[in-house]
Amino acid sequence: MNPRPTMEDVAARAGVSRALVSIVYRNVPGASDETRARVFAVGDELGYRPDHRARLLGSRQRTRLIGVAFDVRYPFHGDLVEALYPAAESLGYSLTLSAVTGSRREAAAVQSLLDYRCESLVLIGPTSPSSALTALAESQPTVVIARKVRAAGVHVVRTDDASGSRLAVEYLLSLGHTRIAHVDGARAPGAAERRTAYVHTMRRAGLTPVVIPGGLTEAAGTEAAHRLPPDVTAVAAFNDACAIGLLHTLRAGGRRVPEDVSIIGYDDSTPSRLDHIQLSTIAQNADRLASAALSLATCQDRESPQEVITSPDLLPRKTTA
Q1: Any long-range contacts for 245-253 (C-beta under 8 Å, 24+ apart)?
Q2: Which range of residues forms the domain containing residue 42?
Q3: Looking at the domain assignment, is residue 247 inside a domain?
Q4: What is the pLDDT of residues 111-142, one digit of tens each?
Q5: Residue 55 falls inside a structural domain
Q6: Which pTM value belongs to this model?
Q7: 29 — phi, psi (to 5°)?
Q8: For 35-84, how does the pLDDT look when each residue is reduced to its tens digit (9 = 90+)?
Q9: For the chain, what percent of residues have pLDDT higher than 90?
Q10: 168 and 278 in a common domain
Q11: What domain count does the chain have?
């Protein structure tokens, strides 16, 4: 594998100094139009790409970068990232992304954003303890999306999870279902609120709650399908990914959806809208969440952290009847 071309390589090929190459790529005065053209041509020929992080680290000017940490395993996080881009651009900012994966912890993702000198951080569904978020906010403006958290100095933007869970159960009740199960989200952000609202709504209707262990992934939905009591006729899943895993597994086992079992998810993630899925779901509005988060991330008031709560929407599709 060939080594990555350096600024020194460009300077040598173009017959100029390294300092002059730096001037050209930083777009500051000090080089003629002819020299700029030659340097860029050589750079393109060599495949040179400037190290913007090094430039930012050496600058005392504002970066106008907003760092975003998200988990690649969850489709709705991707939807939020997509919505954050236009929201940032409308305010004159750019985004720097850092992913949480199965092998990369949240702390590493956040540290990477700090290394880029981001002016503020947006953390999507973080799992770090409140104390860690408080410590982070002491040095960096911090906004949390999609998690109910009380942490000093931290702005919060989230959907009303309790209201969304009630919407799901009340909708299934309106369809005539009385044996309604909830596939839990374990310790995920929002899981406790959704689980509690489900239980309260069922009990208010005089019905027995059925909570099944679950999680945030399709695999969790698959495992939940094997635990589903045979008399259950409807399921409110923690999120869309879990609901889709449940859907595929039930159909593979011979149970019809929605004729035998109705399923409703939560998020309105991109996969839920696919033609072969058409999952009924509770929608979190990614555009509203992103816009509110970016407004808080770019505000100057760090002394009065705010909590913005958006309302969820019921989206009936083809998996409920």
Answers
A1: 245/217, 245/218, 245/219, 245/220, 245/221, 246/183, 246/221, 246/222, 247/221, 247/277, 247/279, 247/319, 248/218, 248/221, 248/222, 249/221, 249/222, 249/225, 250/225, 253/225
A2: 7-50
A3: yes
A4: 989 888 888 999 999 999 999 999 898 888 99
A5: no
A6: 0.78
A7: -60, 150
A8: 989 999 998 888 887 765 555 545 445 678 999 999 999 999 999 999 99
A9: 73
A10: yes
A11: 3
